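Hi everyone,

Forwarding the result from last night's run.
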Amino acid sequence: MPIKKHEIFSNFHEVQHPLLQHKLTLLRKKDTKKKEFKELVDEISTLLVYEATKSLPLVDELIETPLESCEMPVLAGKKPVILAILRAGIGMVDGFLSLMPLARVAHIGLYRDEVTLEPHLYYFKIPSHSKDRQFYICDPMLATGGSAVRSIDKLKSAGVKKISFVCILAAPEGVERVFQEHPDVPVFAVKLDRKLNKKGYILPGLGDAGDRMFGTK
């Protein structure tokens, strides 16, 4: 699947694949039901993971086929970690695990102040010995960028150096904020949408991903 780098954000990767674009359109529709919405998030996440993990390092390992011995590539280093931003990020975890079943799953809990739109941390749990692991932060929406930046800050304070952010939709304001504070962290998304509204929602967007995924609206 080809990746398009946006002209403004050199470390922003917009994954241009027909299946992703089609599924995103279905996800956006206001009449898409909860069950289908969750299934679409899972399918989209799987396709995104395929691209976001393409730079994982490999090392040759001696194996036995039914015919002979040979050296073949396997993933190198410690198992990657999926960091789900609660709560909507949980919906992307199975998509990651479908391709990386041995990956570790971590969680960070953040809630947004409805006045300032800034995130507040209430939970953080990652595996021990995480400093050398590749982390993939997942959240369906990169809106203001507050939760993304807070998550990256927390990981870096724990010594983590290899971080990518994977989302379904992104707003220019959020991407710009991430790259202003963490230019070394690549962002993968299906689409860079137009802008944020006054309440911090992405336009045209798809609404509140968490509410639509868990039926809480």
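The chain has a mean pLDDT of 92.

Cheers,
N.
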